[in-house]
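Newbie here. three chains, one complex. Structure please?
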Amino acid sequence: MASPGVTAGAGLPLRARRRRVGEDVVKGALALCALISVATTVGIVVALFVPAFEFFQEISVVDFLTGRNWSPLFEPAHFGVLPLIGGSLLVTTLAALVAIPLGLGSAIYLSEYAGERARGVLKPALELLAGVPTVVFGYFALTFMTPLLRRIGIDVEIFNALSAGLVMGVMLIPTVASLSEDSMGSVPRDLRDGAYALGSTRVQVATRIVVPAAASGIIASFVLGISRAIGETMIVLIAAGQQPNLTLDPRQAIETMTAFIAATGAGDVPTGSLEYKTIFAVGATLFVMTLAMNVVSIRLVRRYREVYE
Amino acid sequence: MSRALKGGVFKALLLLSLAVGFVMLGALLVDVFRDGLPYVDWMLLSNPPSSSPLDAGARPAILATLYIAGLLLLLAVPVGVGTAIYLEEYASKTRWYNRLLEVNIQNLAAVPSIVYGILGLAFLVRGAGLGRVLLAGALILTLLVLPTVIIAAREAIRAVPDSIRQGGYALGATQWQVVSRQVLPAAIPGIATGSILALSRAIGETAPLIMIGAVTYIAFDPTLLGPFTALPIQIYSWVGLPAEEFKFLAAAAIVVLLGILLVMNALAIWLRNHYRRSW
Amino acid sequence: MNVTTIDHRALAAVAQGHGTESFASREPVFQVKDLAVAYSGNVAIHDVSLDVYKSSITAFIGPSGCGKSTLIRCFNRMNDLVPGATIAGDVLYHGKDLYARDVDPVEVRRRIGMVFQKPNPFPKSVYDNVAFGPRVLGLKDDLEARVEGALQRAALWDEVKDRLKGSALSLSGGQQQRLCIARALAVEPDVILMDEPASALDPISTTRIEDLMHELKRDYTIVIVTHNMQQAARVADMTAFFSVEVADDGRRTGVLVEYDVTAKIFTTPADKRTEDYVTGRFG
């Protein structure tokens, strides 16, 4: 029964605490893994803001942010970024007009109307939409949506903001729907039961009780969707065009911030030149915009989680 | 309008919202398969691209995509799981730097993919002088997908009940013994599922690879430190070419890409269902 | 005094002289002096001083919230794993301070095993469950004999010997708990702590566990926490009764009221609070 090394009975003096080197090594290695994500953030910030800073030594920030002419590769070069921001916002607005109502509608249906089995099938099916690569959506926008729009009488150019915006909106429906449905699902049963007991219809419970109760999560889903729309590259690169164009007409070709970055980055702009640095200046602008929205969205999600969990 | 009618209209509108998404998905799939399926043949899978659509193939792109998937498995999963173990088992939650780490990961998950491309361009391609090579592409996609892997691994680790850990510690096991022999084995199915899903997202990414300089015309099989392309890049390049046939080829390449994604997702779902453990 | 609240088995045990001998001459395994435990500043239990004697069964009884589980977890330093837990006072193990700076908690837990309230077998085979302890401690020699021995001592061998490779989770609740006891025995501890070991089990399994405890106390020192005072009367040699003090501001703290041989606690308790509890007037 007893065996060497560990004896029962008259307690051997407890072995002194020894420094388990193995444990320390493991903890160090794991912490190192965690540091990689820190290094990524530092890398992104440095990669964007150092060249951007250099860029703004030559071009004034005001001219950059308020100029309406973006032609960095021409003579004379102009560096007003408004057309790019305008392009991004135009496509994003169109996408939001599609994704927000349809996403919220889908979420309300899934949360308040669909039975367990239906939800079990429909929710994953909706996720399929989210799994399609964006380049495929870009192809779809160019080869299907644009001809379709023309066929129903909307006179769009070959590259236009409308096709890209509509398709992007469809792509973002699962983003809005999934987060909204999660937050509606977290609303406790008692709230609904109380309303039903007072004689409310399902419409009233859904719109007056559940949606307001889940508001912060729902708004978070909108903000997340918009942030994703602004940061989206492939759909606009393929279907929206590469012509900086400050316009409200979605039938025209435009260029978004992301498309500009992709097109220029892929090209042969000499490293260190002013044109090269435009990539980072626009990139920094994009990053700041999406970061602000992400922070808001994360805060809102935390707020709805705290209330109900 | 009576209440019942209003209710009916409302419900119909909701169903319509749901339907639009599915109709669009259906239209997309039909469109892609109708145009692309006839072009999915052995030539597509084994030929390199060429200026003539008649004998163009996507072989280098397909190979590169598979290589990238393999590299991501080797790079992103260990680092992601390691970070998740650190955050769940070792890091004291009260320390400010650990909370900052968590916030950092949440933010990174939402950064647009093209920004990762800029990161790669600045540091790997031009900064470190690695050049426009497959390895650089794989490294950047690793960073892109890392937050997702971390979040999935954390969920899986958190799902292991604490009573298992307590039982292990009470027997005199050290922290790493409890983690490596009890927690991790129990969390592996969840980690595997989450990782495969994250990887399948990364395979479809195009923007970072464009910035890294994946070229659109490669006639030879890709190597680790050589110029490369990838399936999404090939699709992008073919879509942009004027000749009509190239659009069909692009659709065919899309079919192949969707096929690869389908296999990966099916594997992930099978893993989740097969190893589902009820505590 | 009203004795009808104590069951006949317990009375019989007391009558046979169980729980009557004085242990004062035996070697104390644990010596607790003025122990207090706080979680994030809130004192859970304080003013505890008692000795636990070799090869005996010591029971901690008392109403819920009196800190019995907190106290028992001090004996194997499991409270170290709770962030914000602090200890004041001394716990001596064979004369040595358990909480001295140079004492390794891992070493402590090798000698002082624990069985939990809800059976927590690992999601592995029966064999791997029992083998886990020896494996992590580096006791790889003769593993099979060790596992068989532990299962024999836990009175589980006959029921599992043909399915050692089967999953531990497919055993019944009572079997799982005996598996957890076997798991603890496999590392040859000196002491076994049991935190309400039978409260999640049916009466028949409970009886088997209690019989097991009588067997085990020949070779091991056993401390158990139980909310079932009849159980304490049936198995324990020494019994410690804890109660809850409510301060003016409503804060509740556990405190040791009385510690003596079991028979005395149940038949002629010295403190009125003890008497009230064991006669069922409250608790």
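Moderator note: The domain at 8-14+27-120+189-278 of chain C is CATH 3.40.50.300 (Rossmann fold). Chain C touches chain A at residues 27, 29, 93-94, 96, 98, 101-104, 106-108, 110-111, 137-139, 141-142, 146, 149, 187-190, 219-220 (CB under 8 Å). Thread marked as resolved.
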